[in-house]
Design brief:
Blueprint: E1 4-5, H1 8-28, E2 34-40, H2 44-59, E3 63-69, H3 75-86, E4 93-96, H4 106-112, H5 124-131, H6 140-150, E5 160-164, H7 171-180, E6 184-188, H8 195-199, E7 204-207, E8 225-228, E9 232-233, E10 239-240, H9 245-249, E11 254-255, H10 262-293
Parallel strand pairs: 1-11, 2-3, 2-4, 5-6, 5-7, 7-8, 8-11
Antiparallel strand pairs: 9-10
Helix pairs in contact: 1-10, 2-10, 6-7, 6-10
Bound molecules: ligand LMY7XDAE.
Length: about 300
């Protein structure tokens, strides 16, 4: 029997309805979630992604600002904008669309974003929070992969998960999230000599390499869950992932398609992080107010 499809569009819709409910409550309490999206340059794919992010914000009742700059924007000017947004109380999340033009140091830009507003989860501090199991923001793509796996109903405890790819934004955080869910995790990468030796032992495979046909049917254990993070083009120019979908579908128990799997979840988890950020601000404000109203009266004034 072919594998069951894990539908990222459908799961996104469910999660976005939940996010919209939280946003409505926050807005009623005076804390409408706000996301700032910054795009530098004219990369056509990035233009589509930022447009989709702004639309997604409107759909769930967030306030959003889109700041578009020419490719020759200076690094100093971008850092100044981030500083202003860090101090803007209507903004709970700041997202700088990647990739940035080459003259701008991406790490410097990412580290300039206040950790409390790093809804992409890309900064070193956010990564540290993930390592230490602290409640920071998780990078959206691996966070979305976890939700997709969770939707299968399979408990990861004691399962063997293999992550193919070791990028800071997908592979490494993915491995940590799987580890937090009590899986036994192996990370494979471009220097792994025989990938199939590892993937054939895996109950869950997450492919995040950026090369099509990296995972073929002969490399998959029957009944495995396969998550495809790749976004590549085939010879006909059609979008495809890292997994040979047609072949692997005959072996796996669950599989994500490309398009329609991990991609839509990336934007959904960005919304999730942003609503969570607004929630934390509201919680902190309440804490502060509670402390003020709960204060012992100054002697002689009561
Ligand atoms: N600051 C960030 N930059 C980038 C991120 C990110 O998470 N934060 N991720 C990617 C791009 N990206 C979001 O920004 C993104 C990529 C793909 C999709 C998506 O829905 N893909 C669709 C297919 C789209 C198509 O037809 O071309 C799918 O897989 O179904 C959403 C978001 C790099 N930059």
């Amino acid at each position: 029997m072919p594998a069951q499809l894990i539908d990222g569009v459908q799961l996104s819709q469910q999660l976005r309805a939940e996010i919209a409910g939280r946003a409505a409550k926050l807005t009623a309490a005076g804390q409408q979630p706000g996301l700032a999206v910054i795009l530098v340059g004219e990369d056509p794919a990035s233009q589509v992604y930022v447009r989709n992010k702004v639309k997604a914000c409107a759909d769930v009742g967030f306030h959003s600002v889109l700041e578009k700059y020419d490719a020759d924007l200076t690094e100093a000017a971008l850092l100044a904008r981030i500083d202003a947004l860090n101090n803007d109380p209507t903004i709970h999340g700041i997202l700088v669309q990647m990739p940035l033009p080459r003259h701008i140091n991406s790490s410097k830009v990412i580290e300039a974003i206040a950790t409390a507003k790093d809804v992409d989860g890309y900064s070193v501090l956010s990564a540290g929070e993930l390592v230490a199991n602290l409640p920071g923001f998780r990078p959206c793509t691996p966070y979305g992969c976890m939700k997709l796996i969770e939707s299968t109903g399979v408990d990861l405890r004691g399962k063997h998960a293999v992550v193919i790819g070791r990028s800071n934004t997908v592979g490494k955080p993915m491995a940590l999230l799987l580890l937090q869910a009590n899986a036994t995790v192996t990370i494979c990468h471009s220097a792994t000599p025989d990938l199939g030796v590892y993937t054939r032992q895996a109950d869950v495979v997450v492919a995040a390499v950026g090369r099509r046909n990296t995972l073929t049917a002969d490399m998959v254990k029957p009944g495995a869950i396969v998550i495809d993070v790749g976004m590549n083009r085939d010879d006909a120019g059609k979008l495809c992932g890292d997994v040979d979908f047609a072949g692997v579908r005959e072996v796996a128990s669950h599989i994500t398609p490309v398009p329609g799997g991990v991609g839509p979840m990336t934007i959904t988890m960005l919304l999730m992080n942003t609503v969570e950020s607004a929630d934390r601000v509201l919680g902190k404000n309440h804490e502060r107010l509670g402390q003020v109203s709960g204060m012992a009266p100054v002697p002689g004034t009561a």
